[in-house]
Design goal:
Blueprint lengths: L2 H28 L1 H4 L1 H23 L1 H37 L6
Helix pairs in contact: 1-3, 3-4
Length: 103
């Protein structure tokens, strides 16, 4: 891998937690972490996961492999948890506020 490609590789890898940290800080300053608590927890968990996985990439490829799969499973369950909470909130609000029949 050339030096330019390697720098691009690491830059793209590091952009994700930087942007997610910025989103979490903005949400916290505006008080939106109370309204969107599941999304806020998901973003913070992704940044924490990156803080564990990125050093593992340097330490051992085997450790990185297993941590990456474990983090993907945890991330998937948190994402499902976040989507289900938002879906439940939307369905309940539509059901109680609509003038049509509640099925």
């Amino acid at each position: 891998m050339s030096e330019k490609t390697r720098m691009l590789f690491y830059a793209l890898w590091l952009v994700q937690p930087v942007l997610q940290t910025a989103i979490a800080v903005i949400m916290f300053r505006r008080g939106q972490h109370r309204t969107f608590k599941y999304f806020f927890a998901y973003i913070v968990a992704l940044v924490a996961t990156f803080a564990v996985i990125f050093p593992a990439y340097w330490y051992s490829t085997t450790a990185y492999f297993y941590l990456s799969w474990f983090a993907t499973a945890i991330s998937f369950t948190r994402l499902f948890w976040m989507y289900s909470s938002h879906f439940t909130r939307c369905v309940i609000s539509v059901r109680f506020y609509s003038s049509g029949p509640a099925w």
